[in-house]
Amino acid sequence: MPDTDTVIQNTKPAELVDHNLVPEAETIVAGILYEKRPAKRLDGSVAEGLYNAWITLDNPSQYNAYTTEMVKGAVLAFRRASVDREVSAVVFTGAGDKAFCTGGNTKEYAEYYAGNPQEYRQYMRLFNDMVSSILACDKPVVCRVNGMRIGGGQEVGMACDFSVAQDLANFGQAGPKHGSAAIGGSTDFLPVMIGCEQAMVSATLCEPFSAHKAYRLGIVSGIVPALKVDGTFVANPAVVTDRMFDDFGRIVHGEFKTGDEFQAGREMIRAGEIDLGLLDDAVERLCAKLLETFPECMTKSLEELRKPKLDSWNRNKENSRAWLALNMMNEARAGFRAFNEGNREIGREIDFVKLRQALAQGTPWTPELVESLMPGIGDD
After folding, report:
1. Which residue range is the domain that position 352 belongs to?
2. Tens-level pLDDT at each residue, the chain (380 residues)
3. Which end of the chain is more exposed for a tag (fewer CB within 10 A), N or C?
4. CB neighbours (10 Å) of residue 200?
5. How far is CA 37 from each of CA 54, 84, 91, 191, 299, rounded to the nearest angstrom?
6. Quick one: 18 and 77 in the same domain?
7. Of 108, 112, 113, 29, nearest to 69 (Cα)?
8. Looking at residue 180, which CATH number applies to its domain?
C-alpha cells in the first residue's frame, strides 16, 4: 500500500486557491500578533506540516485593551486562521501575565467616541464582526486566559469554544459601573453558560470573580496555578481554594478571602514569581486532543454546539449596536471620561448618587452635569 506522503503528492492540486479576504501580509496590524506554532501530538511529538494559530492581543501597557485598529486586525486574523489548511486549532490570548483583555480602549472611547454616536455605531460594527469571526471560525478556538478577562475581554473570551486560565486571573463585567451595558456578548452568553441568576449578578453588580469561581460556575474548562513561591507552584492564596461552605451553607469555594487573610494572600502574590508554564502546557495538551480528531466532524460539532450562543447573539447584536451608539451621548460619555481621567487616588467612577439625585429632579444631560459628576469634584 502507498504511504500517506505518496498519496498527497500524487493527488493534491498543482495550485491551491487562496480563500483569504486580503493578502496575508495585510492581516498584521499594530497590537495584533499572529503566529503559527507547530502542532503537537499527545505524546509531545511535532505533527509535521500542522500548526496552531496563536492570535495575541499585544497592548500590555493598557492591559491588552483593544483599539479600533486591533479589532480590525483580530477580524482578519480569525479569518486567516479559519481558512488556513495547515491550522488545527486557534489560541486566542493576550501579551504578558497581567491581562488577557480588559475590553475596549477607554482612552479612545473617552477622547474620540464619547459624544459621537454615529462614529461609535461604526466601531460597534467592527466589534460585532470580531465576536462573529470567533463564533464562525472553522477551527476550535481556545482562550488562553493569561490574566484579567474583564468587560469586552470577557465577551470575546466567552465567544471562544474553550477557556483555560491561570488561577490569578479575574473575570467580570464593567458595564453599569462605567456607563455601558454588557450587551457586546455577555448578556447573550452568560445566561447560557452560567445560568440566569449568576448572569444577573455578574452583568449588573460588576463585581470581579476569581478563576476558581469561574471554573466552579463552568465559564472556563480548566485552571492551573501560576504563582511560584520558593520555586513551587501554589494556588492563588487570596482565594478560598478548598471546597468549603460557610456557617450558612453557602459555597465559598472560589470566593476571595476577606480581611487580613486576603491582604496576606496579596502580599504572597507580590513576593512570588509569576510563571505561565503550566498554562502553556495545559493549552498545548488541549490543542493536542483537538488535533487527534476528524477535522470535518470537529467543525460540524463546533457549529452545532455554538448554536445556543449564536442564536442569542444574532438575535440581539444589531439592536445592541444601536443602543450602545446612542448611549455615547449621556451615560457612556460620563462613564468613559471618568475612567480615563480618574486615578487610584480619586477613583475612576462618577458620583452615582449625585447623578440619580439630579435625574430625580428632572435635570437634563448637559456638559455641566457631566462635569459635576467627574471623580474628585466636590471632594475636600
Report:
1. 346-380
2. 666 666 666 676 778 899 988 888 777 789 999 999 999 999 999 999 999 999 999 999 999 999 999 999 999 999 999 999 999 999 999 999 999 999 999 999 999 999 999 999 999 999 999 999 999 999 999 999 999 999 999 999 999 999 999 999 999 999 999 999 999 999 999 999 999 999 999 999 999 999 999 999 999 999 999 999 999 999 999 999 887 777 667 778 899 999 999 999 999 999 999 999 999 999 999 999 999 999 999 999 999 999 999 999 999 999 999 999 999 999 999 999 999 999 999 999 999 999 999 999 999 999 999 999 999 876 65
3. C
4. 13
5. 7, 13, 10, 34, 20
6. yes
7. 29
8. 3.90.226.10
β-strands 32-40, 87-94 pairing:
unpaired
Please indicate, yes or no, whether the overall pTM of this predicted structure exceeds 0.90: yes
Number of structural domains found in the chain = 2
Neighbours of 336 (CB within 10 A): 24
DSSP result, 255-283: PBP-HHHHHHHHHHHHHSEE--HHHHHHH
* Cell digits of residue 331: 451615560
Cβ atoms of residues 130 and 69 within 8 Å: no
Any domain includes 255: no
